[in-house]
């Protein structure tokens, strides 16, 4: 892998609000792979679990596809994009219905190797 090349992993249609995910992403952006995993493991947020899976996956991609050392990986980019919203209906009084929007998000992690 050349110096400018990067490795990427994406988790799509994760059933959690992108706003809640970004709160956790901001804490691990720019950190090393191992440090990020340790932080995610002990955070009290539900968003930590799907993010942990993506970070773990991007490291596996780097190791298996590019023969990189996991210990030398740095999270260069990490972001959550908004996915489609699941639309549900809440029955209300007198035949009315209120709309419930259940958000999803796409979590993208990009790592680079430091030498």
Largest sheet: 3 strands, antiparallel
State which percent range the strand residues make up: 25-35%
Low-confidence blocks of residues:
none
Structural class: alpha+beta
How far apart the termini lie comes to 11 Å
Helix content bin: 25-40%
Q: Helices and strands, in N-to-C order?
A: EHHHEEEE
How many helices?
A: 3
Radius of gyration: 17 Å
Protein name: 50S ribosomal protein L22
Organism: Thalassiosira oceanica
Keywords: Chloroplast, Plastid, Ribonucleoprotein, Ribosomal protein
Tell me what you see in this structure.
It is a single chain. With 115 residues, the chain is of the alpha+beta class. The protein contains three helices and five strands. It has helices at residues 18-28, 33-42, 48-66, and strands at 7-14, 73-82, 86-91, 97-102, 105-113. The strands form two sheets. Strands 1-5-2 form a three-stranded antiparallel β-sheet. Strand 3 (86-91) and strand 4 (97-102) form a beta hairpin. The chain starts with 6 loop residues before the first strand and ends with a strand.
């Amino acid at each position: 892998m050349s110096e400018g090349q990067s490795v990427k992993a994406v988790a799509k249609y994760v059933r959690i609000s992108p706003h809640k995910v970004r709160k956790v992403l901001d804490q691990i952006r720019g950190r090393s792979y191992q440090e990020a995993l340790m932080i995610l493991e002990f955070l009290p947020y539900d968003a930590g679990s799907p993010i942990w899976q993506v970070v773990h996956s991007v490291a596996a991609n780097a190791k298996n596809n590019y023969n990189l050392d996991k210990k030398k990986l740095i999270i260069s980019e990490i972001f959550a994009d908004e996915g489609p919203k699941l639309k549900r209906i809440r029955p209300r009084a007198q035949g009315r219905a209120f709309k419930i929007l259940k958000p999803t998000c796409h979590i993208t992690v990009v790592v680079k190797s430091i030498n």
